[in-house]
Specification:
Layout (H helix, E strand, L loop, with lengths): L4 H39 L16 E16 L4 E13 L15 E5 L8 E3 L14 E5 L3 E4 L2 E7 L11 E10 L7 E5 L15 E14 L7 E13 L2 H21 L9 H22 L9 H27 L10 H14 L5 H21 L11 H14 L3 E5 L2 E5 L19 E4 L5 H57 L8
Parallel strand pairs: 1-9
Antiparallel strand pairs: 1-2, 2-6, 2-7, 3-5, 4-8, 5-6, 8-11, 10-11, 12-13, 13-14
Helix pairs in contact: 2-3, 2-4, 2-8, 3-4, 4-8, 5-8, 6-7, 7-8
Length: 513
C-alpha cells in the first residue's frame, strides 16, 4: 500500500485529537476542583480570622460531639484521666458556599484546615498545659458551606477521684469544653447527642465504661460580668474491676486475719504465740505501705481497703496483747497467785462446758478430793492415834495422804501437834466444789513414844510432799484457765473478724444495684 501525503496528514490530525480528548477528560475533575478552591479562597478574598456571619449580631452555631475510643489511664495518685478520643466538629461558613453545577457537579471537597476559620475551643480542665484542642491537617467542605472534621487526639484532664470505696469504687470524670474568647453572643456550642459515642471503644483491663452524660450550660465569667460563655461537659462514669486487688491484696489480708484466730488455738507451751503474732503484724504493715503508695496523700477520707487493713492490724495488735496476758496466766503457780474458789468453780465446771473444753480430769480430781476429805475428817475426829483400828504405819500413811490432799500445815503449838485445814467447814460444803475444811484437831501430848515417832514421820512426809503437790495442782489450775481464756478470745475474734470484714467490704452502694 502506498502511503500518500494526504494519508499521513489524516492520521496526524486524528492522533492529535485523541491526545487532546484524553488529556481534557483526565484533568477536567482536577481542573474544576482547583478552580473551585481558587474561587472560594482567593477570588472571594476569604479571611479566616473573621467570624462567618453576615451580620455582626449573628451567632455561629458550633456542633460538637465527643467519641471515646479508649481509656488509657486513671491515675489515682495524681488525680488525672487520660483518654483517646475523636472530636466530631461541625459548623457552617456562608462564605464557602458554591453551586455544584458550575464546577462539574462537585458538591464536596477536602481543604487544608489552616485555611478555615475555627473558634478557640479549649479543654478547660486540661492537666498537661495543652488547652487547645487537637486539630487535623484537612477538613471536609460541602457546597452548602458546612465544614466537618473529626480529628483524633489524646485528652488529659484533671479528675477528682473519690477513693472512699477503693477498690470497689465508681468514678465520675468530666471533660469540659468551651470557647475561650467567644461569648454566647458570638459562638454557641451545641451537642448533637446526649451520650458519649462509644462505637469504636476498646475495653480497658481495669475500668468498665458503664455510662456517660452530656450537659450544656451557660456560665458568666468573673472577668466579664454580663457575658455568658458556652460550656459543654462530658461526664464519664467508670467502674473499677476489683479482681486484681481482691486476689493480690484483700485475700492475703483475709488469710492473715484467719491466722490471727489460730493464734489462740496455738498452745502456750509451744512458745510461738508471740512470734506468730508479730510476724502477722509485720506482714500487714507491708501491705499497708503498698496501699499507701497507690493512694493519693489525702486527708479527706480513708479508702475502704485501708480501713480493712487497719481493722486487721487492730485485731492482730489486740491478739498480741491478749497472748501476753495468756502466757502470764499460763506461767502462774501456787506460790505467787491464788485462785478464788467461786471463780474457779464458775470457769472450770460451768463455762468450760459451753466452750467445748474437756474438764473430766477436774471432775475426777474433785471426786477424789471429796473422798479424801471424808477420810481426813475421820482421822481428825480421833483424839489419839491409838484409837484408830489401823496399824501405826497405816495411820501415818493416812495422815500424810489426807494432809497432802487437803494442803494442811503441821506445826507444834503449846506442846502438842495441831492440824489446820484450809477451806470451808465440814464435809457438807465439800459437795459444792470446795476443796478444804477449816477444822482444827489438837492431838494431846499424852501419847506413847512409838505414836510420837510415827507422827514425826508423818509430819516429815507431809512437809516433803505438800509443797510440790500443792504447787503443781495450782499450776494446773492456772494452765487450764489459760486454755479457757484462749478459747473465749478465739471465738470472740472469729465472730468479730467475720462481722467486721462483711461490714467493711459490703459498704459500696453499687454492689447492691
Amino acid at each position: 500500500m502506498k502511503i500518500t501525503k494526504e494519508t499521513l496528514s489524516f492520521y496526524g490530525i486524528w492522533f492529535a485529537i485523541s491526545i487532546a480528548i484524553i488529556f481534557t477528560t483526565g484533568t477536567s475533575g482536577a481542573t474544576n476542583e482547583e478552580r473551585l478552591h481558587n474561587d472560594i479562597f482567593k477570588r472571594r478574598d476569604y479571611k479566616k480570622f473573621i467570624r462567618p456571619v453576615q451580620n455582626i449580631s449573628d451567632t455561629v452555631h458550633f456542633n460538637f460531639t465527643l467519641s471515646i475510643t479508649q481509656i488509657l489511664d486513671v491515675d489515682e495518685k495524681n488525680q488525672r484521666l487520660e483518654v483517646n478520643a475523636w472530636l466530631d466538629q461541625e459548623w457552617r461558613d456562608y462564605r464557602l458556599e458554591w453551586n455544584p453545577d458550575e464546577y462539574g457537579g462537585i458538591d464536596y471537597t477536602i481543604v487544608p484546615f489552616k485555611w478555615l476559620w475555627y473558634p478557640d475551643l479549649v479543654l478547660d480542665n486540661s492537666i498537661d498545659g495543652t488547652y487547645m484542642l487537637h486539630t487535623w491537617k484537612y477538613a471536609s467542605l460541602y457546597s452548602d458551606g458546612m465544614i466537618w472534621m473529626t480529628p483524633p487526639g489524646t485528652l488529659k484532664s484533671a479528675c477528682y477521684l473519690n477513693i472512699r470505696y477503693f477498690p470497689f469504687d465508681v468514678q465520675y470524670c468530666d471533660l469540659t469544653f468551651g470557647p475561650w474568647e467567644y461569648s454566647t453572643e458570638e459562638v454557641v456550642l451545641e451537642n448533637k447527642t446526649d451520650k458519649i459515642i462509644r462505637e469504636n471503644y476498646i475495653e480497658n483491663v481495669e475500668w468498665d465504661f458503664i455510662d456517660s452524660t452530656v450537659v450544656l450550660r451557660y456560665e458568666e465569667d468573673e472577668c466579664c460580668p454580663g457575658e455568658l460563655y458556652s460550656i459543654l461537659t462530658y461526664t464519664i462514669v467508670m467502674k473499677r474491676r476489683p479482681l486484681y486487688y481482691v486476689i493480690n491484696i484483700i485475700l492475703p489480708g483475709g488469710f492473715m486475719a484467719l491466722l490471727t484466730i489460730l493464734v489462740f488455738y496455738l498452745p502456750p507451751e509451744s512458745g510461738e504465740k508471740i512470734s506468730l503474732t508479730i510476724s502477722l503484724l509485720i506482714a500487714l504493715s507491708v501491705f499497708t505501705l503498698i496501699i499507701a503508695d497507690i493512694m493519693p496523700p489525702t486527708s479527706e477520707t480513708v479508702p475502704l481497703i485501708g480501713q480493712y487493713f487497719l481493722f486487721n492490724m487492730a485485731m492482730v495488735t489486740t491478739s498480741l496483747c491478749i497472748s501476753i496476758v495468756v502466757l502470764n496466766i499460763h506461767n502462774r503457780n501456787g506460790k505467787t497467785h491464788r485462785m478464788n474458789p467461786w471463780f474457779r468453780k464458775f470457769l472450770f465446771f460451768r463455762l468450760s462446758k459451753y466452750l467445748c473444753i474437756d474438764n473430766s480430769w477436774l471432775q475426777e480430781n474433785n471426786k477424789n478430793d471429796e473422798e479424801n476429805s471424808v477420810k481426813a475428817d475421820t482421822v481428825y475426829r480421833h483424839s489419839s492415834l491409838s484409837e484408830l483400828d489401823r496399824g501405826d504405819f497405816a495411820v501415818a500413811d493416812e495422815i500424810a495422804c489426807c494432809l497432802r490432799k487437803k494442803r494442811s500445815k503441821v506445826r507444834r503449838n503449846d506442846g502438842g501437834i495441831q492440824l489446820t485445814q484450809l477451806g470451808v467447814k465440814k464435809s457438807k460444803y465439800l459437795a459444792k466444789g470446795y476443796r478444804s475444811m477449816p477444822e482444827k484437831s489438837k492431838i494431846p501430848n499424852n501419847l506413847s513414844f512409838f505414836e510420837m515417832e510415827m507422827l514425826k514421820h508423818a509430819q516429815y512426809l507431809v512437809n516433803r510432799l505438800k509443797p510440790d503437790e500443792g504447787e503443781n495442782a495450782d499450776a494446773d489450775d492456772w494452765r487450764f484457765l489459760a486454755i479457757i481464756v484462749d478459747r473465749i478470745f478465739m471465738i470472740t475474734f472469729a465472730v468479730t473478724i467475720v462481722i467486721g470484714t462483711l461490714a467493711l467490704l459490703c459498704q459500696p452502694p453499687h454492689l447492691w444495684n
